[in-house]
Amino acid sequence: MTITPEKYIRKPLVVLGVEVTKENFTELALWLQGSIQNVDGSEPETIDPDTQFILVRVHNPKSPRQSRAFVGDWILYSDRGYKVYTPKAFKNTFDPIKAEFKKPKEEKSKGEEDEEKFEELLDRVEDDREKELADEKDSVVRVEDVPRHRRIGN
Length: 154
Fold this sequence. Notes:
Blueprint: E1 16-19, H1 25-32, E2 35-38, E3 52-55, E4 68-69, E5 74-78, E6 81-85, H2 87-93, H3 110-139
């Protein structure tokens, strides 16, 4: 009997990814339903992305680091759930998708449905945050604009 190996290529895994930044640190933790923790193990009193990480609910992490997202890391979502990648691992593993993949019309898989829900949730979080910021800006009242008889302590 002659053994004839054949060539195979791994199927691509399409993921959604967000880089953790100082600017999105708190919002990303809320969006992931993760928790912010201090690197030294103490309870956080304030938010400081330089000394904290986001604890991400990762399915079956191989080490504690795989569930800790620091500034610069990437949080990915696929049909398998969340995963944390260091910048180097992300760069070596993933490339941005240049064009949308068009699949023939067929029923959506669970992963595709989850991906759509994930994108919709991200859009809603971004819209809500923009509204909150606009509301905060509109609700700021300067002391000079309040009549003297209405000011507290006068």
